[in-house]
Amino acid sequence: MAAKKTNKKSTKKTTAKRVKKVTDLEQTHGKQEETPKVTPSTLDQVWGDTGLSKYRTLDAGEYKGYLDSLNKTDLHRHAAEMGIIPVDNKENLYKRLMGEFTKHTATYKMPQIKARSKPLSQKAKDILAEGR
The whole model's pTM is what? Predict the structure, then answer.
């Protein structure tokens, strides 16, 4: 029977390296750190859908670069994946793909509208008080 191997005893020096200070530790809480710049307009967006699943980006320049890198065959394949019937004219297909991309990003980039409230004058308050 083989002899059991014993682990090396840890020294004070090695255990001191493993100890971290409490101030150095970070905790994950699962919340987004930044505030969203857009107001969610669908229930999917409320639950965290960012819109990146379909086109893999929301940046028009990046998507345009991707389309420019495709040849005609790949452009037809991409159009079919996006649910667009591929046409023979490459320019028209390119415009349709960019139009669909713009529609898609518009649903995810709805700007926040902050209502500006003006203080009511005393005359307006009196008029509103008459209806009570």
Answer: 0.54
